[in-house]
Automatic annotation (TrEMBL):
<feature type="transmembrane region" description="Helical">
    <location>
        <begin position="7"/>
        <end position="28"/>
    </location>
</feature>
<keyword id="KW-0472">Membrane</keyword>
<dbReference type="Pfam" id="PF00528">
    <property type="entry name" value="BPD_transp_1"/>
</dbReference>
<keyword id="KW-1003">Cell membrane</keyword>
<feature type="transmembrane region" description="Helical">
    <location>
        <begin position="71"/>
        <end position="92"/>
    </location>
</feature>
<dbReference type="GO" id="GO:0005886">
    <property type="term" value="C:plasma membrane"/>
</dbReference>
<feature type="transmembrane region" description="Helical">
    <location>
        <begin position="242"/>
        <end position="263"/>
    </location>
</feature>
<feature type="domain" description="ABC transmembrane type-1">
    <location>
        <begin position="67"/>
        <end position="263"/>
    </location>
</feature>
<feature type="transmembrane region" description="Helical">
    <location>
        <begin position="112"/>
        <end position="130"/>
    </location>
</feature>
<protein>
    <recommendedName>
        <fullName>Maltose/maltodextrin transport system permease protein MalG</fullName>
    </recommendedName>
</protein>
<keyword id="KW-0813">Transport</keyword>
<dbReference type="GO" id="GO:0055085">
    <property type="term" value="P:transmembrane transport"/>
</dbReference>
<comment type="similarity">
    <text>Belongs to the binding-protein-dependent transport system permease family. MalFG subfamily.</text>
</comment>
<feature type="transmembrane region" description="Helical">
    <location>
        <begin position="142"/>
        <end position="160"/>
    </location>
</feature>
<keyword id="KW-0812">Transmembrane</keyword>
<keyword id="KW-1133">Transmembrane helix</keyword>
<dbReference type="InterPro" id="IPR050901">
    <property type="entry name" value="BP-dep_ABC_trans_perm"/>
</dbReference>
């Protein structure tokens, strides 16, 4: 009976893995097929490889610029929201603030709202309110980094709060008795102990900013256009270049796969850190 149950679990997870990974495999198959084969009888078997789509995407200077914009925006936003979220969690867990639970709930409601709700007010803010001479935040990397804080900062606070709260306050008190300042406690005690949670938050917010499409497609034109928004340029009135779009999609997957494979153990440690307080 135990052996049968084990085989059932194995078959179940094989089926789940197949359903999850098959779209990625199918995306790769589309990216290495010429346009003529895509509109013929589709086949899931990869009998030949057509690398010209990858050569065209790699040689396109516009797409390379979009990729660089995505790297700058996602990295800048991830570092900013992780730093601000860490400091906010320290204040929420260490100081006796009145109504801090209400503050925490109000913050996380921004993450619950659909991004489309913020499109109009963000557009008006970037074009009318935060205007410095001829410079506006619209279609700028700084503007997109700040825009993504609207959604990623609440997530960073929600993720980091259990991590910071799981660090005993007695460590802070002992350091203060020894004459340490608040910044010394944060940088030399709290920060090293919270590194697993910080790593998880940094990675997940980076992926969220890297994959975002709706806000980037609405609030950028060319200067800050990201790689994900470049897909729409290949849907025209004369046809859709499915092979190029699939190739760009594969390129957007590669950085996230590399990062997750490198820090997989830290993700598990960070998500469980602070789950049980002694």
């Amino acid at each position: 009976m135990q052996k049968q149950r084990t085989w059932l679990y194995l078959l179940f997870w094989i089926a789940i893995s197949f359903l999850t990974l098959f779209p990625i495999y199918w995306l790769f198959v589309i990216s290495v097929k010429p346009a003529v084969e895509l509109f013929s009888t589709p086949s899931i078997i990869l009998d030949s490889v057509y690398w010209q789509n990858y050569v065209d995407v790699f040689n396109d200077s516009t797409l390379r610029g979009y990729m660089m914009n995505s790297l700058i925006i996602s990295t800048g936003n991830a570092v900013l929201v992780t730093s601000l979220g860490f400091l906010a969690c320290y204040a929420l867990t260490r100081f006796d603030l009145g109504g801090k639970e209400s503050i925490f709930f109000w913050t996380i409601t921004n993450r619950m709202a659909p991004p489309a709700v913020f499109l109009l007010p963000l557009f008006l803010l970037m074009t009318q309110v935060y205007k410095f001479g001829d410079f506006t935040l619209l279609d700028s990397k700084i503007g997109m980094i700040l825009v993504y804080c609207t959604f990623n900062l609440p997530f960073a606070i929600w993720t980091l709060r259990p991590t910071v709260d799981g660090i005993p306050k007695e460590l802070d008190e002992a350091a203060f008795v020894d004459g340490a300042s608040a910044w010394t406690v944060i940088s030399e005690i709290i920060f090293p102990l919270a590194r697993p949670g910080l790593a998880v938050t940094l990675i997940l917010t980076w992926v969220f900013a890297w994959n975002e499409y709706l806000l980037a497609a609405t609030l950028t034109n060319f200067n800050a256009r990201t790689l994900t928004t470049g897909l729409s340029e290949y849907v025209t009135t004369t046809g859709t270049e499915w092979g190029i779009m699939a190739t760009i999609s594969v390129f957007t997957l590669i950085p996230a796969l590399i990062i997750f494979s490198m820090v997989q153990k830290h993700i598990v440690a960070g998500l469980t850190f602070g789950a049980v307080k002694g």
